[in-house]
Amino acid sequence: MHTTTTDDTPAAVRIRGLRKVYGGAVAVDGIDLDIARGETFALLGPNGAGKSTTIEILEGYRLRTSGEVSVLGVDPAHGGLDWKGRLGIVLQSAAESGLYTVREQLAHFAKLYPSPRDVDEVIAAVGLESKAGTRIGRLSGGQRRRVDVALGIIGRPELLFLDEPTTGFDPEARREFWSLIRTLKDEGTTILLTTHYLDEAAQLGDRAGVILGGRLVDVGTVEELGGAEARVPIVRWRDPDGGPREVRTARPAELVASLVARLGGEPAGLEVIRPSLEDIYLQLVRAAGVDALDIEEAAA
Ligand SMILES: Nc1ncnc2c1ncn2[C@@H]1O[C@H](COP(=O)(O)OP(=O)(O)OP(=O)(O)O)[C@@H](O)[C@H]1O
C-alpha cells in the first residue's frame, strides 16, 4: 500500500537556520525555507552556490553543521528505511550499474518499495521503450540520465528530489520530461528541483528560490521572483541618427505610440521585451557580484 502521511507537519520540507561548513569553508550559510506538500519548488543558483549540499542534507546523504531540518516530518539525519521509502532521489551524478538492462535495473529497485509503479509504465514515461532490454552501460549520457529519473520515480515517492535532472537531455526529451513531472504533480507529488535551465524552472516551478554564496537571496512564485521592478518591460529602438535607445516603462504601448508620433512612422529596430525568469535571475546574480564565469555557466 502507498504510505500515507501520518505526521501532522503541514510542510513537506521545513528548514531553519541551516548551515554546512566543509573544513573552514561555509557552503550553506543560514537557510530558512518551507516547501508545502504537493508543491514544486525550483532551487536556482550558480555553480558552487550550495544547492546540492542543501538537497543532499535533506535527502540524508550529508550531515548538517547546524540548524533544524524536517523532511516529511522526520529529521533526515535520523531517517530510517520507512522514511527513505517515501522519497525519490535523482542525484546530480548517479552510479547505477552498467551491467544490467534498463528493465532489470528498474525491476530490481521496484522490489525495494512497498507500492512501486509498473516497470514498463515507468520505462515508457521516460521514453526508453526501445532501450528496455539494453544494458545501461551501452546507453548514451542522456539516456542514462533518463534511467536515473526512472529510478527516482519507480517507488511512487511522496517527495521527489531532482538535482539537475535534464542535464544532457535533448530538447525533445526535456519536453517529455516536463510532461512527466506535470503528471507527478497532478498526482500530488512534492518536488524539489535544482536546475540551471531557467525555462525549466519557469515551466515546472510553483515557486523558486535563488541561492547565492550559501544564502537564499530571494524566494517567490515564478511570477514574483526578483520583485515587480525587475519585471518592468524594456522598449528598445534606434533613433534616426542610428543611436540605440532603451527605456524601461510599465506602459510600453504609450511609449511606442509617442515614438511613432514623434518619428512620423515605425521606429527602427523596435523591440518590446518582458524580462524572462532568466533575465531576472541574471539581474539578481549580477547584483550580488558573483563572478562572470559562474553567471555564464549558470545561464548556459
Ligand atoms: N565534499 C565537499 N568537501 C568540501 N567542499 C565541498 C564539498 N562538496 C561541496 N563543497 C563546496 O561547497 C560549495 C557548495 O557546493 P554545492 O555542490 O552545494 O554547490 P551547487 O550549488 O550544487 O553547485 P553546482 O551548480 O555546480 O552543482 C562549493 O564551494 C563546493 O566547492
Q: Which ligands are bound?
A: adenosine-5'-triphosphate
Number of helices: 10
Overall pLDDT metric:
88
Neighbour order of strands in the largest sheet = 5-6-7-3-8-9
Uncertain runs are 1-6, 292-300
Helix coverage percent = 25-40%
Shape: globular
Give the tally of β-strands: 12
InterPro entries: AAA+_ATPase, ABC_transporter-like_ATP-bd, ABC_transporter-like_CS, ABC_transporter_ATP-binding, P-loop_NTPase
Protein name: ABC transporter ATP-binding protein
Main location: membrane
Domain ABC transporter: 13-238
Structure characterization notes:
The protein has 300 residues and is of the alpha/beta class. The protein has a domain of 68 residues. Helices cover 32% and strands 26% of the residues. The chain has ten helices and twelve strands. The strands form three sheets. The protein has a six-stranded mixed β-sheet, sandwiched between helices. A three-stranded antiparallel β-sheet has the order 2-1-4, covered by helices on one side. A hairpin with a 5-residue loop joins β10 and β11. The longest helix has 16 residues. The relative contact order is 0.14. The N terminus and C terminus are likely disordered. The structure holds adenosine-5'-triphosphate. The site of adenosine-5'-triphosphate has 12 residues, from β2 and α1.
